[in-house]
Amino acid sequence: MVGVWWFLVLWCPGLLQGHPCLNCESYVAQNVVPDTAQMLEDIGGTEGEACGARSPCGPGLNCHYNSALETVGLCREIKGVPCIVFNETYENGETFMLDCRTQCTCQEGRYACASLCPKETISPLGSSCRHPRLVEVPGHCCREWMCDSYSAELPPDCSYSPWSGCSSECGTGLSKRSGGCGDETRLCQHRPCPGPLPSLPPAHHRLRKGHECKATQREPRGLRLLFASCLSRRRYRPKHCGSCPGHTCRPELSTSLRVPVLCRQPGDSLEDSTLGADLWADRTLTAAYSHPLVISLEWVSKCECTPIGPTTHSPELLLHRVHRTAAP
User: Fold this and answer.
1) Pairing between strand 144-148 and 130-135?
2) Which of 24, 109, 146, 158 is 20 to 30 A from residue 133's alpha carbon, by CA?
3) Distance CA 191, CA 170 (A)
4) Using an 8 Å Cβ cutoff, are 92 and 108 in contact?
5) Cβ(101)–Cβ(115) under 8 Å?
């Protein structure tokens, strides 16, 4: 009985007023639905209004509290779940940069990224580019591929002759060797030019009797390798042989070192080096150096000094090696 009563109230109110409802569906659409929508709008708060447990927000809005202890907040539009990336918060739909090469977009608490340097994903494989790798270029965001001029791992049947001596007594020179896999060339410098090095150490070093000459000397500060229009990417403190009276100092222990360089002119090679010029310089890399290259260098670890002419030993002269010895 109660169900019938509610049906008459909602769908045929005209019967209760003494006249029949010929089109109840039309009556409900014109009278009941607007009243219900108005009721829902009156119940919920609009954006920016105060809200709480007893005063909720309207449809599409959420009550935002500044802290968990507050009981009154503000109605705000629901904008989706933000993304937290490396302790940084990004709103839903926001686009941001992880670095200069990566762009990301936040979507409902998750983010997707794309590279702005598509060439980095295309490796220049083939016989013309061995051991490709990405390197940084000063003044540019995107990295470039660098190729070795020959394979670092030689085939089992590839044998080489010993390295030849440096072509220059001082300054920049070339050293070569030949083998079944081709000829190789490396830069070398046993001592800088011009003239011999000072036979005395720097003034801040305390001199000891019998230690006035050193067979192996090292640069006091970091320098860059320089040849043609190229500079090494990093600084080094190279060693070179000293110049001792009545003795000839040459490398006793050395090895080949692979040095990444950047050149201003494309196509520079070791053959473009100026023989006799200083191989090391205090230079600064700029954006003009943008062409990567890897070259071989003779890296001196230890020098040995031998007397000139008949073997005679002066008790006042003791040559330094790698380890110091007590003065006689």
Assistant:
1) antiparallel
2) 158
3) 5
4) yes
5) yes
Give the whole-angstrom CA distance, residue 148 versus residue 142: 20
CA 60 to chain centre: 45
Phi, psi of 124 (to 5 degrees): -80, 70
Nearest alpha-carbon partner for 64 in 83, 48, 84:
48
- The full DSSP string for 76-137 is EE-----EEETTEEE-TT-EEEEETTEEEEEETTEEEEEES-GGGGS---STTSEEEEEE--
Is the peptide bond between 194 and the residue preceding it cis, with omega within 30 degrees of 0?
yes
Burial class of residue 327, CB neighbours in 10 A (0-12, 13-18, 19+): exposed
Identify which of 227, 224, 229 has the alpha carbon closest to the alpha carbon of residue 290: 229
Per-residue pLDDT of the chain (328 residues; tens, 9 = 90+): 445 555 555 555 555 454 455 555 555 455 544 454 455 445 567 888 888 878 888 887 777 777 656 778 888 776 788 899 888 888 888 888 888 889 898 988 899 999 888 888 887 765 567 677 888 877 788 888 877 654 444 455 567 888 999 998 889 999 999 887 788 899 999 988 865 444 444 444 454 555 557 888 899 999 999 999 999 999 999 999 988 778 888 898 888 889 999 999 888 888 888 888 899 999 999 999 989 999 999 999 989 888 886 654 444 444 444 444 444 4
Can you give the pTM of this predicted structure?
Answer: 0.46
Buried b (16+ CB within 10 A) or exposed e, 213-226: bbbbbeeeeebbbb
Rounded CA gap, 294 and 303, in Å? 26
Number of H helices, E strands in the chain: 4, 21
Cβ contacts of 172-177, under 8 Å, gap ≥ 24: 172/227, 172/273, 172/274, 172/275, 172/276, 172/277, 172/278, 172/279, 173/275, 173/276, 174/270, 174/273, 174/275, 175/298
